[in-house]
Amino acid sequence: MKTVLVVNGPNMNTLGWRETGVYGAMTLEQIERNVIAAGEALGLSVRCFQSNHEGAIIDEIHRARGTADGIVMNPGAFTHYSYAIRDAIAAVALPAIEVHLSNVYKREPFRHVSVTAPVMLGVVAGLGPIGYELALQALAAHLANEG
C-alpha cells in the first residue's frame, strides 16, 4: 500500500474559526478525517501532520523520504517565502501537490506568488476542503502510472 504524507502549515490548526468567509467552517481535524477516508478508498495510507513552525515542517518532509510515496501539502503563508520548504520538497524527490483552500489569485497580490509551486507536481487552489481530496486523487493516479 502506498503512503501519502499530508502536511499543513501555519495557522491551519485554526480552521473552523479563523476567517470562515475565506477558509470555510470545516476544522483541520474534519479535513484530515475526510482525506484519510478518501485515501482508504483509493488504496492509500494517509499520514497527516501540521505545524506552525518551519523547521518542524522541514523535518517532517525529510522523514517522508523512505517512509512515504508522495506528499500533499498546504504550506499556508510559507507558500510565499519559504525557500527552505521548497528545497526540502526538492531534496526528498517525492511527487508533491500543493493545496490552498482559498483562491489565492482572488486575494492580496503577495498571495499570487508561490515559491514552492515550481517543485510541485501540481497545485489545487480555491476549491475549499475538497481540494485535498482532488490532490490525493491526482497523486494516486500519478503513483499508479509511475510503477
Walkthrough of the structure:
- It is a single chain.
- The two termini are 12 Å apart.
- Strand 3, helix 4 and strand 4 form a beta-alpha-beta unit.
- The chain has a single domain, classed as Rossmann fold (3-Layer(aba) Sandwich), CATH 3.40.50.
- It is built from five helices and five strands.
- It has a five-stranded parallel beta sheet with strand order 2-1-3-4-5, with helices on both faces.
- The chain has helices spanning 20-23, 28-41, 54-64, 83-92, 130-146; strands at 2-8, 44-50, 70-74, 96-100, 122-125.
- The longest helix is centred in the C-terminal third of the chain and has 17 residues, at 130-146.
- The relative contact order is 0.20.
- It has 147 residues and is an alpha/beta fold.
